[in-house]
Amino acid sequence: MQQRLAVEGAEPSEITAAIARERVAYSQRFTPQTVMQPCSSRCTRDDFERRNALSDARQDIAAQHVPVMVLMGAQDLNVSSKETLTVWSVTAGGNFTLLTRSQRCHPRGTARQMV
Known about the structure:
- By secondary structure, this protein is an all-alpha fold.
- The protein folds into two domains: 1-55, no CATH class; 57-115, no CATH class.
- 46% of the residues lie in helices and 0% in strands.
- It has six helices and no strands.
- The chain has helices at 2-7, 12-29, 32-35, 45-52, 58-62, 81-92.
- The radius of gyration is 18 Å and the shape is globular.
- It starts with a helix and ends in a 23-residue tail after the last helix.
């Protein structure tokens, strides 16, 4: 949300207020009782979001003993890559090495450089 609002030109105070409103709505929508409800028929994207809303992957991340590649878009409008990579680096500790692209991919999709 923060990325999306920033791209749309929202002021920092508007972004902060929108995030606060979203946190309240999220906590009301996704309670421990609602996330435990089964899908009504075929599981949908809404069901996926509901059933995983209170999930916390940190314990699973900490248990990783093999190399893991986390691919994220730095300007993803739905997920904060900074927050996600911070969680991975703190949780995985010595098992996590961060490699980032210093430049965007070539228009034809060829990677130019890794730092």
